[in-house]
Design brief:
InterPro entries: Endo/exonu/phosph_ase_sf, IP5, IPPc. This is Inositol polyphosphate-related phosphatase domain-containing protein. One of its GO terms (molecular function) is phosphatidylinositol-4,5-bisphosphate 5-phosphatase activity. By secondary structure, the chain is of the alpha+beta class. It folds into two domains: 313 residues, Deoxyribonuclease I, Chain A (4-Layer Sandwich); 38 residues, no CATH class. Helix content is 28%, strand content 25%. The strands form two sheets. A six-stranded mixed beta sheet has the order 3-4-2-1-12-11, with helices on one face. Helix 3 links the parallel strand 7 and strand 8. The longest helix is centred in the N-terminal third of the chain and has 22 residues.
Amino acid sequence: MSHQNWKVLLTTFNCGKSLPFDQPELISRIVKELLPQALGNDIYVIGLQEFVPIWQGSFASVVEPLLQSLSDQILEHLNQQSDREYGLVGFSNTGAIGLLVVADKRLAKNQIVTCSYRCGYFWSSLKGAVALCCSLQREGDEPETFTFICSHLAANKGESYKQQRLDDYRAIMSTCQEQFRLTAFKKGHVFFMGDLNFRLEGDQDLETDYTDPEVIMQCQKTRDELNICKEQGLIFQDFQEANIQFPPTYKYITDQADELSNKREPAWCDRILFKKYPQGNYKIDAYVSIRRSPTLQFSDHQPVHLAIQVPRLSATSMINSPRSLPVTQGSLTGDVADKVLGYGGWAMTKRLHYVVILLIVLLLVSKSH
């Protein structure tokens, strides 16, 4: 086992509520698309948004077996293609936001902790984040802390929606700091990924060629909300992102390869950032969008992956053992909202409209108390 840089590959994908779990062979092909042929990484991270219909995300008994089956497919693919053997570090979700982490089996895995934050309507899990913090250790080295955060922030263009994204980002980071306070979270490796939903400022020009490298560069410098807010110190102050050299990741016409929809102005919604390293001693191997092959055209988003080599952080060697961690977003309102979403969605699929009306009434009554 090398004592050099850690090799980490992260992939984020908004699945448009259409990941075909009922077709295992298709899921296997999707996994192969999301994990490029360049194998041999120490850690693989898959962040998903809308990987099930929103209502299904309210039921752990539905979602957890799906994530387990997906992790099995990921491990099968990696272990067949690589001379290494990989094992599951863990997976977690909040609603339809999912996170899976696998790593080389030779790494010692300890103190695996997860947390989540809900920031959808009525504090539901329509939007929010899920995070996993763990200690990984190579033989002969000190343990190091890795934290992976997968988020789905508020959608739509406009000042109020942008402000909502900024507020929710701050709340997500505050929640992670609170719930991971017994780990070396602050001193370790931190990655933030997902459908962050930041849009382009200014008016849309329907004639813009978003595949032109010059256009991409200018949009990133002068119009991209995330970059503008970052420059203003409003978000991701301690984070860095590799240069974007790929076309917008949203909104594509489903069942089409590269045709953007005119219903929304294109934007780089899907992003992966990482906490800054001392002296910038890291190496970006790839920061690219994944080709929209026919296998991936069920979504209106394009997946993005980051392959990065990051340095050892010896300062993270002291890690306290996590005990019982508080749940900061387990509010009654959010719990009720998720149940309304869950059972309401189920009722709609069964055409039980009167049940939906009853659930909405119950939600409004609970909100008023």
